[in-house]
Amino acid sequence: MPTVSIIVPCYNEQATIRILLDAIYSQTFPRAEMEVIVADGLSTDRTREEIGAFRAEHGDLAVQVVDNPRRNIPAALNRALSAACGQYVVRLDAHSAPHPDYVALCVQALEERQGTNVGGVWEIRPGGQGGVARAIAAAAAHPLGVGDALYRLSTQAAVVDTVPFGAFPRLLIDQIGPFDETLLTNEDYEFNTRIRRSGGKVWLDPSIRSVYYARSNLQELARQYWRYGYWKLRMLKRYPSSVRWRQALPPLFILSLIGLGLLSIFWPPARLGLAGEVILYCGILLAAGLIEAARRSDPFLAIGLPLGIATMHFSWGAGFLWSLLQPAPQK
Q1: Mind listing the pLDDT tens digit for each residue in 248-271?
Q2: Is the CB of residue 169 less than 8 Å from the CB of residue 215?
Q3: What is the pLDDT of the chain when averaged over all its residues?
Q4: Which residues of 232-249 are buried (b: 16+ CB within 10 A; e: fewer)?
Q5: Residues 60, 103: contact at Cβ < 8 Å?
Q6: Whose CB among 14, 69, 186, 296 lies 3.0–4.6 Å from 46's, allowing a Cys bridge?
C-alpha cells in the first residue's frame, strides 16, 4: 500500500501535465511509496495521451486516471480521494511542478505534527511565451496583485489561513468531510476553514516549494480572477468571520468608481474625486511597473505589469459584486 497519494484535478492540460508528472517522478520520496491519481474532466485535447505516454515510459510510478464528468475542481478532488489508498494525501495542480523534495518535506511536517494541513510557497512562472505571459507571472507574484497572501510572499514558517496544494492525513476526510462541491472555486480555502474550526492547524513552510505556471494571456487571467471573486463571496457568506481586508478592496474600488461616475453627472465636484482616484490608481500601478521592469531588466513590464494587476483587480471585484446579486447558494 502506498504511503502517499498525490491527487491532481485536470481538464485539457496537455501543455503542462507532463511537466507535473516529470516533477513527481523526480521526487526524492520513494516512488514505490507514492501513487498518482489524476481526476480528468474528460479532456478533449491530448491530455490523456500525454499521461498514457508517461505511464508507458515510467512503469515504476503508479499513475491512475479517474473520470470527473462534473468537470470542476472540488468534484475532481473528491473523485481522486475516493480512489486514494495512501496514508497521506498531497494535492497538486496540473499547472504546477513541485520541487524534488516537496513530497518528502510535506510528509516530514505531517509526521512531526507541525500542522493538520501543510503546504509551502509558490514560485510563479510564465504560462506561455512573450511579454504578456511574463507580465502576468510578475503580476501574480506582486504584493499589489496578491495583497498579503503568505503562500506567495512568506519567507518564514507560520500558522496561516490557507495553503496551496496542501498535504494532509487521509483520515482527515473522515473527520471534517470532503471538498465542498457547491463551491466551484475557493474550495481549498473553505476546506482549510473547516480544518481550523475543528481545532486543526494549517501550516506553511517556505522550504516546501512548487512552481506554478500562471495564465498565458489577459483573457484567461480575467476569467480566472472573475471566478475567484465570484466564488469567494459565496464562501464568505458561509463563513463571514474568514473575511480579510484584501478581499474587500477590489469590489469597493469598483463601487467607488461607479458611484463617483454617477455622481459626476449631477454634481461636478465628484468629477474631481473620480479623476483623482483614477490618476492615483494608475500612478501607483505605473510606478510598480517601472520598478519591476528595472529590477528584472524587462522593459515590457513597465506597461505589462500594470495591465496584469488591473485585470486581476477589476475581474476579481466584478465577480465579487456579480455574486452579490445572485441568490444565496444552497448547501
Answers
A1: 889 999 999 999 999 999 898 999
A2: no
A3: 92
A4: bbbbbebeeebeeeebee
A5: no
A6: 14
